[in-house]
Every structure is written in C-alpha cells, then in structure tokens.
Design goal:
The complex is a heterodimer of chains A (about 375) and B (about 260). By secondary structure, chain A is α/β, with parallel strands linked by helices. Chain A is built from twelve helices and four strands; from the N terminus they run E-E-H-E-H-E-H-H-H-H-H-H-H-H-H-H. Chain A has a four-stranded mixed β-sheet, covered by helices on one side. In chain A, helix 4 crosses helix 9, helix 6 runs antiparallel to helix 7 and helix 7 crosses helix 10. The longest helix of chain A has about 40 residues. Chain A is elongated, with a radius of gyration of 36 Å. With about 260 residues, chain B is an alpha/beta fold. In chain B, the strands form two sheets. A six-stranded mixed β-sheet of chain B has the order 6-7-8-3-9-10. A four-stranded antiparallel β-sheet of chain B has the order 2-1-4-5, covered by helices on one side. In chain B, a hairpin with a 2-residue loop joins strand 4 and strand 5. The longest helix of chain B is centred in the last third of the chain and has 18 residues. Classes of the chains: A alpha/beta (about 375), B alpha/beta (about 260). At the A-B interface, helix 1, helix 2, helix 3 and helix 12 of A face helix 4 and helix 6 of B. Bound molecules: adenosine-5'-triphosphate and magnesium ion. Adenosine-5'-triphosphate (ATP) binds next to helix 1 of chain B. Magnesium ion (MG) binds next to helix 1 of chain B.
Chain lengths: ~375, ~260
C-alpha cells in the first residue's frame, strides 16, 4: 500500500528534447490539491506542441486518485494532435485500471441547459398559468372523488372508517381547543377594548356590546377559527398525504384494493367538517367572555348589563349566520389540503411548497367564501 | 492485493448499543485493517446497519470506544470529527439521496462544500464518477424520484465516492442490482481498493460478493462478532448459523 507521503504539492515539469516534449508529473495528484492541479493542467493545455511528440511521465506521482487521473487524461486528450495521442509512461499496474475507468469518460460534458433570461421569464409565466389550470383540475377531481366516495359510503355505511375519523377529530378539534379558545378570548378582549376606547368619544360606550356580539358571532369568530384550522390541520393533512405519496404508501393502499379517498381523505374531511363548527362555537363563546370581561373592567359595564344588552342586540340569526358558514369553510380547507397533498412530487422541496400552498390557498378561499356569504345573507335580509 | 497492512484503520472496542433498554450489540470488538474489504454478514435484524451507524456516529452508544484513523471519535472535537468525516464515504441502505437535488447536484454537493475548483472540472468529475459506477452521463440531470432502484444505489455510491474517500461504508450495495451489475459493482470495488487503497466496510447478503471481493468476513450474531476471517474460516466453522449460511442450498448452487 502507499505509505503516507508528506503532503508534497503536485508538480508538472516540462522538458523539451529536440522535437519531443516531456511532461513529468510528481507529488500528490489527489483531491486535496484539486485547485493547484487544475491550474497546472489549464496551463499545460495551452502549450504549443504542434510539432512535438508528447510524452507524459507519471512514474514520479506519489499518490493518485480519480481527480488526478482525470486531469491527466484531460491533458492527454487536449494535447492529442490528429490521431497521435501523447504517450503515457511510467504507469504502475495499480493505477492503470484507474486510467481505464476515466478513459471511458467521454469529452463534451452534458451541460444543464440554461435558458436565456427573457425566454426563461416567459416560460415561468406560462408555467404558472398552466399551474393554475392544473390546480383547478386537481380541486375539481378531488371534489368529484369525494362525492363519489361519499355516495358509496352512504350506500354501504359499514365501509366508513369511524375509528380513523375519530382519531382525526381528536387531532383537529379536541387538541385545537386550548389554542383556539385562548386566541379567540384575546381577540374578544381587543375588540372590546378598542370599541370602548373609540365609542367613548361619542358617549356610546354601551354600543360596544352590540358591535362585539355581531362581529364575533357573524364574522370574526368563524373566520379566525377557519384560519387557525387551515394553518394547523390543513397543513398537517397536506404534509401527511404528501409524504405518504412520496413513499409510495398510497400506491401500496391502491394495490391492496383500498380506495385512498375512502381510507385517507373521507375520514379527514368529515372530521374537519364536524370540528370547525364546534371550534367556532367555542371560539365565539370565548371571545364574548373576553369582551365581557374587558367591558366590565375597562368600560364599567357590569356583567348583568352586558348580558341584557347582548340579548337585545343580537338574535339567534346572527349566531346561525356564523355557524352555518363553518362546515363550508371546513370543506374548502379540507379539499385544498387533500388536493395539494395529492399533487406532491417525489422531493422534499415539493412537499414544502405544497404545504405552504395549501395554507395560503385555504386562507384565501376561506376569505373569498366569507365575502360571498356576506353578500348572500345581506341580500336575503338576515 | 492480498498484502494489506496490519494497521487497524477502524478499531471498535467493547461496543454496546441498544434502544429502549433492549441491547442490539453488546461488548462487540472489531478491527478493520487499512486497505482491506471487510464483508459483514448476519441474519436480518442482527444489527449490521446499527453497527455501521454506530461507527459513523449516527447512533448513540451505551458503552464502548470507536477509533477511526487513530482518532478516538468520542474524545475528538468538532474540527477533528469533521476532518475524519471528510475522509469517509457512506452508502446508506436506502440511498438517502437528496430528493430536491438532481443527480449532478447530489454528487457535487460534498465537492462544492470542501473544494474550490471550476464548474467545468466539477462537471467532468461528476461524469467520471457516473461512468465509474456504470451509469450514463445523461442521468446527471434526472432527479432521485425519476431513478430506478438500482440507479439510486449507483448514484448513492457515486456520491459516497465523490471526495475520493479512504474508507467507504456500504450498506447492502448490491441488493436490488441485477447479477451482471452486481458483478460489475464488485469489480469496481476491487479496482478502487487496488488503485486508491480504499478500505471498504461492506454489509452484504450477496454470497458472490463475499466470495469474490471480500478479504475478510465478519459474522454478526448473538449481539457480537461470532467469527471474523477469510472465506475458508467461514466454510470450516461448525457454528450452526454459519453452516446454514455458507453450506445452504443457495451457497451450494453457487459452488456448483
Ligand atoms: N432506531 C431504532 N429504534 C429501535 N430499534 C431499532 C432502531 N434501529 C434498529 N433497531 C432494531 O435493531 C435491530 C437491528 O437492526 P438493523 O437495521 O441493524 O438490522 P440489519 O442487521 O441491518 O438487518 P437487515 O439485513 O435486514 O438490513 C432490529 O431488531 C431493529 O428492530
Ligand atoms: Mg440493514
């Protein structure tokens, strides 16, 4: 075996003898000297040797690895004139098979294509437009698959995965209760505080109860909870389904005769559709409590006055308007999360992109849906 | 190629590794000599992968001492560990390619980190490594999810070899390759050993590889090394598992 020679830098000596040029390599031709080596070879490749016969002598090389061997091979190729290759001498038996390996490398490296900037820009635009179309198709096909599966499950209720649904319900609803209640409570406090602070200028302090009730029950409660659920459960669904796709688990399910929509997606969707109204209710109550506390402490509206005012200001309609939106929003979040999960390609990066897209799109569409509901309820006069 | 020095490049002493109180390896001693190809065999679940991961420092050990290149891996500081890690390459059982990088980027990843050379040279070396492991240069622009199982293995090997390491750890390198490719792979490992003085720690179930390329074979069982030595020792052993392994139906078919 080679002894550990001191770290002698690689050298390439040139000697001209009449018409012949001898290049003698010595020292360590290894990866540790890759930068020096490349410089040496680049310089040597520029040598003018149109008339000379060239000999490359590697007998003095202390140590050689693929880097050194390739660079010598590259030098040999660039000094080849016509069909006359430079001679390679002093090659020990050990190293000759290494040269055999690198000799199989063809020159003319395959380059990764680098498109020009304008074309690249146009290409990106085109691709994103196609991407939008793809997303819509993905959403529609997910919708279709869910409807078909739901129909089948209604006809054969025994095929419904109840255990799985309860598991997901626990994840999406039960475990989300503390954070949803806490955040809604705080938002209720903030609305009440701001309301009192601003309304006091007109001496209309007590109307803060009306505002709080209407805002929390109709809009903020459900919207806030939907956004939290999109960030919490929507992203989890996308990541779960996406990584199952990456590891061929979904293909495995399919080959065993299971329908992935039935086994994976339907329980998740249903869990979400039940969870969101429950969370909305709890969140709205927490926000009213928070608002009531602030109204009492900061605005001097005592709880009895708060409650009777609340009873006058809001009707059951306000509550219904809020809670009715919840299952629709859950459906939007679930369908986007599952469609994004199903669109994950093989790489970790794509998993990250689709998880982000899932949350962003869910929030966007939830807000759009809320706007449409607002117009609808206003026009039917609720 | 038979004459490798007696210097132990990897020295494992009294190694104990376990999960949740269940010991997988117990008081295990093992020496890997510089320049040899060591085959590690053992039943499925006997802890071959665990031993590999413990040596390269991916698993915490309950007890024991591991020296690589004479550096005690526990006593070594961050910089020393880095220096050692740069001198070995690892082929994981499932490839462990970076899924968001192309084949080219996977192979160049360690090179870019540790060397400053031109992109042209990097590309050429990448192609050289691909050719060495028996792949076409066109593969360079594919992504790991677009490769077949055997191609994944080869790209992972190319990446393990990208820094021209002194030791490579191979976890079942030939599983999933067709017999001809597996034979080529064995040849490649042998060539690398001969030309680069590479030390190879190879976990394998491939009797052909054991027979043709391994200088010594270590048998794992009962949480320790049952036997270590050349093929002849394995064939001569009376241990029932070794008897079944090396004289079983498959082994006889090979011998015939
Ligand atoms: N992270 C872990 N946590 C718990 N147990 C583990 C872990 N990794 C491995 N094991 C256990 O250690 C034992 C040895 O596993 P190991 O992967 O080393 O087997 P192996 O010898 O490589 O088998 P194969 O030939 O099938 O690859 C197994 O019983 C396995 O269950
Ligand atoms: Mg294993």
């Amino acid at each position: 075996m080679q002894e550990r020679t001191p770290n002698s830098s690689p050298i390439l000596e040139q000697t001209r003898l009449g018409t012949s040029l001898a290049l003698r390599a010595s020292g360590q031709w290894t990866i540790h000297h890759a930068l020096d080596l490349e410089g040496l070879i680049d310089a040597a490749e520029k040598l003018n040797c149109t008339t000379a016969t060239v000999v490359i002598d590697v007998s003095q090389v202390a140590k050689l690895d693929t880097f050194g061997a390739w660079l010598i091979e590259r030098l040999r190729r660039s000094l080849t004139q016509g069909v006359v290759e430079p001679d390679l001498v002093g090659l020990s038996a050990n190293y000759s098979s290494l040269f055999d390996e690198v000799r199989r490398v063809k020159s003319g490296v395959v380059e990764g294509k680098e498109p020009r900037s304008l074309t690249a820009f146009l290409e990106r635009v085109g691709r994103s437009v196609v991407g939008v179309g793809g997303t819509l198709v993905g959403l529609l096909s997910m919708w279709g698959a869910i409807l078909v599966t739901t129909g089948r499950v209604i006809r054969h209720p025994s095929s419904f995965r109840l255990t799985s649904m309860i598991h997901h319900f626990e994840q999406a609803c039960w475990r989300a209760v503390p954070i949803v209640v806490l955040i809604s409570f705080l938002i209720g406090c903030i609305i009440a505080q701001q309301g009192i602070f601003q309304f006091r200028k007109f001496g209309a302090d007590v109307f803060v109860v009306d505002m709080l009730g209407v805002l929390v029950l109709r809009e903020i409660g459900v919207l806030l909870v939907a956004i939290m659920v999109a960030g919490r459960s929507g992203s989890a669904y996308t990541a779960e389904l996406g990584s199952m796709r990456m590891r061929e688990e979904i293909d495995a399910l399919r080959t065993m005769g299971f329908d992935p929509t039935e086994v994976l997606i339907l329980p998740r969707m249903l869990a979400l559709v039940i969870a969101l109204p429950v969370l909305t209710f709890l969140g709205a109550m927490a926000a009213l409590c928070g608002g009531g506390l602030v109204a009492w402490g900061y605005g001097g509206v005592d709880p009895n006055a708060f409650l009777s005012r609340l009873r006058e200001a809001i009707s059951i309609n306000h509550f219904i308007v809020g809670i009715v939106k919840a299952p629709f929003m859950a459906f939007i979040i679930g369908i986007i999360a599952c469609a994004e999960g199903a669109a994950v390609k093989g790489s970790a990066e794509s998993l990250g992109q689709h998880t982000t897209a899932s949350v962003v799109k869910s929030i966007f569409f939830v807000i759009i849906a809320d706007g449409i509901f607002a117009i609808y309820f206003a026009s039917i006069g609720i | 190629m038979t004459a490798f020095s007696d210097e132990a490049i990897i020295k494992v002493r009294d190694l104990t590794v376990g999960f949740h109180g269940k010991l997988i390896l117990e008081h295990l001693d093992l020496d890997v000599k510089r320049g040899e190809i060591l085959g590690v065999v053992g039943a499925s679940g006997s802890g071959k992968s665990v031993l590999t991961r413990a040596i390269i420092g991916l698993l915490p050990k309950v007890n024991g001492r591991i020296e690589v290149f004479g550096v005690g891996m526990d006593a070594a500081d961050e910089a020393e560990r880095r220096a050692v890690e740069r001198r070995w390459g690892v082929l994981f059982q499932h490839g462990a390619l970076f899924s968001s990088l192309s084949v080219r980027q996977n192979i160049q990843f360690p090179m870019r980190e540790f060397m400053k050379v031109s992109d042209r040279l990097l590309d050429e070396i990448t192609v050289a490594k691909l050719v060495m492991v028996g792949l076409k240069p066109e593969v360079a622009d594919l992504f790991p999810s677009e490769l077949s199982g055997g191609m994944t293995k080869r790209v992972a090997l190319a990446r393990a070899l990208s820094l021209d390491p002194e030791i490579v750890f191979l976890d079942e390198p030939t599983s999933g390759l067709d017999p001809i490719s597996a034979g080529d792979f064995d040849e490649l490992v042998k060539t690398l050993q001969r030309t680069l003085g590479l030390t190879v720690f190879m976990v394998t179930h491939d009797l052909d590889s054991l027979n043709t390329v391994c200088n010594r074979i270590a048998v794992l069982g009962d949480r320790k090394v049952l036997l270590i030595g050349p093929m002849d020792d394995m064939l001569a052993s009376q241990h029932p598992w070794l008897q079944a392994y090396f004289h079983g139906k498959r082994a006889r078919a090979l011998a015939a």
